[in-house]
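Entry: Dehydrogenase
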Amino acid sequence: MSRPPSRRTMRRPLARRIDDFLRDWSLPRQLAGQPHRSDAARSTLSEGLRPRLEQADTVSTTICPYCAVGCAQLSYVKDGRLIHIEGDPRSPINQGTLCPKGAATFSLVNNPQRLSRVKWRAPYSDRWEEKPLDWAMERIAQLVKRTRDETFVHKLPNGTTVNHTMAIGSLGGATLDNEENYLIKKVFSAGLGLVWVENQARV
């Protein structure tokens, strides 16, 4: 018949755990005078830690889509899927920082409710239909052309030449650069005769 373990034997595992904890914990080593930037700060846990982004197979640069500041971002991708977004420290604009909206770009991209296909609802219909992108672009072009032709004004009643339409407007995105905005203004104002040309960055 075996004897029950003595109190001394039962205390051994606890003492060993405490001893291992104190030996592995970095604070006692730092209090003993070891520099905190060297081995004193290491532990079993920290030795096993790995950079969370080392699994990314592609790192690309992009611009935050939310406002007119134009903060640069680094996008980490693995197997074609975004796994993390952070500020680009090389940017003179944000220098690696992001506001809460910019930091939430990750959820914007990976949100399961994000629409990734063209949705169209026919007039008086009660349901949405999926359409090809080419079909949508062609329909937009046709509607713009038809609306312009139906509402285009060459001259005012007093004889002043205006060559414009008041029935179509343009609202540009905040991430458009100067060159893109220049082209939009030329195409919409000089080409189509739009009067209402605005940009999100100014609203």
